[in-house]
Specification:
The complex is a heterodimer of chains A (282) and B (187). Chain A has 282 residues and is mostly helical. Chain A has one domain. Chain A is built from 14 helices and two strands, in the order H-H-H-H-H-H-H-H-H-H-E-E-H-H-H-H. Chain A has a two-stranded antiparallel ribbon. In chain A, helix 5 packs across helix 12, helix 6 packs across helix 12 and helix 10 crosses helix 11. Chain B has 187 residues and is of the alpha+beta class. Chain B has one domain: Roll (Nuclear Transport Factor 2, Chain: A), CATH 3.10.450. Helix content of chain B is 52%, strand content 21%. Chain B has seven helices and five strands, in the order αααααβββββαα. Chain B has a five-stranded antiparallel sheet with strand order 1-2-3-4-5. Chain B is globular. Chain B starts with a helix and ends with a helix. In chain B, 22% of the residues are buried. Classes of the chains: A mainly alpha (282), B alpha+beta (187).
Chain lengths: 282, 187
């Protein structure tokens, strides 16, 4: 009986302890807060008001504002019919061609080799990142990316290894021309789903075309000396190998993401646009 | 002896109950480490791994809040029974999705980068998942319950994509043409 009484006492103490955490305690955190509050009397008044507002509006808490639909409300989607069927097409391509090929490829080619190829291709695309970081005036990124390129191209055996990430801890800064346009306030334009490549929009499509000039992996007439592929067939080949290789390193990822969708096309569109907004903000 | 045991038991309950501001980084760090240990443990079956990972993370997530935000204004029009139905369906959906993502785990490392207090009652914890060929940013968004020092996760951003925002968009699109009952069913 005594034990039961102790048990109840403990429960009471324990749960009151839970709520006690809100009463002022001489913890360093609280001290900081109280300092800030006493610094400006008026401000603390305002804070008190907003505190009570929080209480009343408990099921809102400012979340409606934070997640206001305006931010993600898609602009006009004139191509929605086409986009929907292209999403379907890409989904089929993925399921019946890309994924099985990538699985077989992953079975035959050992992972370190595939990672090496992925690093190699990323390293070759350095000019795209350099140009776009420069255009956005991000000088720290320019120096990081240049350092990465130099390190990976030399100690990293022509970019097959990535010592810049694993040993030197220089962060990568992927930027493309779509992001550069976004950085200078260019709107997305309407959403376009590209065959094989997936979701994009008018701005990013323009971006891809411009980046093709800087990338040594895409053949452009007149720039053959600087480019690795000699014609567009070879460019396509490189893109295809890159896609298969990339898929082989991320098997199951698309399927897993797809499961979260109620309706695939708007879901992928929304994810893409959200990701681009955050990439541009970086 | 018994007293001690009970005390320890209760203390652990309280600890797993909610996170306080000064502990967010520490707690999340240890939780993530625990999940990684579970995932790397070869003696556990897939089911066990999933169960244990969810149990570790459960106490910091506010599923009800996530459900509420993701439904937006529609939430207020629901009866309390519908609210709880939806919240539990949503919780299942989120957990299922989380577990499904865990299956992709392939010895990635997780680094907690920094804690940012964005507002008086909002904190975001930035972390990075480092895989062999790619890295992903994961940001855990915490909010403070009114008048308490208890912090809970209300959203997770994976490479800049907010989970709650994505659901919110989907639900609002769904409800434009279909009913709440159908939504509940499709979850």
């Amino acid at each position: 009986m005594q034990h039961v009484a102790i048990f109840f006492m403990l429960i009471l103490v324990a749960f009151s302890g839970c709520s006690q955490s809100t009463t002022p305690q001489p913890s360093p955190q609280k001290n900081e807060l109280s300092l800030i509050e006493t610094e400006t009397e008026n401000n603390s008044d305002v804070e008190k008001i907003s505190d009570t507002e929080d209480e009343i509006d408990d099921d809102n808490d400012g979340f409606e504002e934070e997640f206001s639909t305006e931010k993600t409300e898609t602009h006009s989607d004139p191509l929605s019919g086409y986009n929907r069927s292209m999403t379907n097409f890409n989904d089929k391509v993925y399921t019946y061609a890309l994924n099985p090929v990538a699985e077989a490829y992953a079975y035959v080619i050992p992972q370190p080799f595939r990672i090496g190829l992925s690093n190699f291709i990323k390293n070759l695309n350095f000019p795209v990142r350099l140009v776009n970081n420069l255009l956005q005036g991000k000088m720290q990124n320019v120096s990081d990316e240049t350092g990465r390129f130099l390190a990976n191209s030399t100690i990293g055996l022509l970019g097959v290894m990535d010592p810049a990430t694993s040993y030197l801890h220089i962060p990568a800064h992927v930027e493309d021309f779509g992001q550069t346009l976004g950085y200078y306030g260019v709107g997305t334009g309407f959403h376009i789903v590209l065959p094989f490549l997936g979701p994009s929009n008018l701005r990013d499509l323009a971006g891809i075309s411009v980046d093709a000039y800087a990338s040594p992996l895409i053949n452009i007439r007149g720039l053959e000396r600087y480019k690795i592929p000699k014609n567009w067939v070879e460019s396509m080949g490189i893109v295809a190998i890159h896609m298969i290789n990339k898929t082989s390193l991320n098997l199951g990822q698309y399927e897993s993401i797809k499961k979260d969708a109620l309706d695939l096309y708007p879901f992928l569109r929304d994810i893409y646009e959200q990701k681009r907004v955050s990439d541009i903000a970086e | 002896m018994l007293k001690k045991i009970i005390l320890i038991f209760l203390l652990t309950i309280i600890n797993s109950y909610a996170v306080q501001e000064q502990n967010i980084q520490k707690t999340m760090d240890s939780k993530i480490k625990k999940v990684l240990q579970v995932l790397q443990n070869k003696n556990l079956s897939l089911k066990q791994k999933e169960k244990q990972s969810i149990r570790i993370m459960d106490s910091v997530f506010d599923y009800k809040k996530m459900a509420q935000i993701s439904l937006g204004r529609k939430w207020k029009t629901l009866s309390s029974k519908e609210k709880s139905q939806f919240a539990s369906a949503f919780e299942k959906k989120i957990k299922h999705s989380y577990v499904d993502k865990l299956r992709l785990y392939n010895n990635q490392r997780v680094i907690i980068k920094k804690l940012k207090k964005t507002k008086k009652n909002r904190i975001s914890l930035e972390s990075t998942i480092i895989g062999k060929s790619d890295t992903y940013d994961v940001v855990y968004q915490f909010y403070k319950r009114a008048n308490k020092n208890d912090w809970y996760i209300y959203d997770v951003r994976l490479s800049g994509v907010s989970i709650v925002q994505t659901y919110r968009k989907q639900f609002s699109d769904f409800l434009k043409t279909k009913s709440f009952k159908q939504l509940l069913k499709s979850l």
